[in-house]
Design a protein that fits this description.
Blueprint: H1 3-25, H2 30-44, H3 46-55, H4 63-88, H5 91-113, H6 119-137, H7 143-171, H8 178-198, H9 201-232, H10 238-244, H11 248-258, H12 265-284
Helix pairs in contact: 1-9, 1-11, 2-8, 2-9, 4-7, 4-8, 5-6, 5-7, 5-10, 6-10, 6-12, 8-9, 10-12, 11-12
Amino acid sequence: MDPLALLFVAAAAVCHAVWNLYAKRAADGGPVFVWLNSVASAVIYLPVMLIAVVLSPPQWSWMLPAAMLVTAVLHLAYSVVLQRGYQRGDMSVVYPLARGTGPALSVTFAIVVFGERPGLIGILGAAGVVLGILIIGLGRSSGTRLTAGVGYGLVTGVLIASYTVWDAWAVGPLAISPILFDWGNNLGRGLMLAPYALRRRDEIRRVWRRHRTAVLVVATIAPAAYILVLFAYRYAPVSLVAPARELSIVIGSVFAWLLLREPQAGRRITGAAVVLLGVVALAAARG
């Protein structure tokens, strides 16, 4: 993998683990929380988007809003399902399953749809990342909470794979600016959720009062994480970037152990080591 792409992916992994920690803490916010951070993101990143458009004017065509609309729908479904999963299940089950299923399907889609050939080392690296994530995530839990966590995690993973392949095509062959593209995604999510959220103004006030910090952290850091990934797609194929970005699972496991006091540190450290070996293999791979 190109060293610059790997740097983008590593930085994105840190940002991703941080915003998911805050999203878990605001799990009771539901779709209203998603609406608040989507709108806040669109406002916060508006000046950045305008500067990007002035410095590098996009090719204006009907494909630009169409691509943004599709990604907004996919990301909205992903955000709502993930937040619901954090309400109903454990983060240590939902997050790893979502992040593990996503890259596994992304690699498959990239090979089948884009004709990418990551090579044996790349495929083994991707498999190692997924295996490590599963070791971290599938531990002790029971009853409906485990069932809900697994179900929401898998559905979230399918949505991750879907928007990963679509977005890579948008910023790659379509050459849409990652900053403009992600800003349009956040604006689109905010507009689509507005009819739902604005009928629940008491809920908006409650979520803002209880989770203001989480809203602002997710609004600021989540777009930064994904913009870094979108830039990485310009320097490396999807079949390598998608699994490598799951380094966030290692960081998230450390957060869960140190900050959330979740158990089974030994199993999670073992899984983290497998993930790291997979990332090293991905870095050494050549498509």
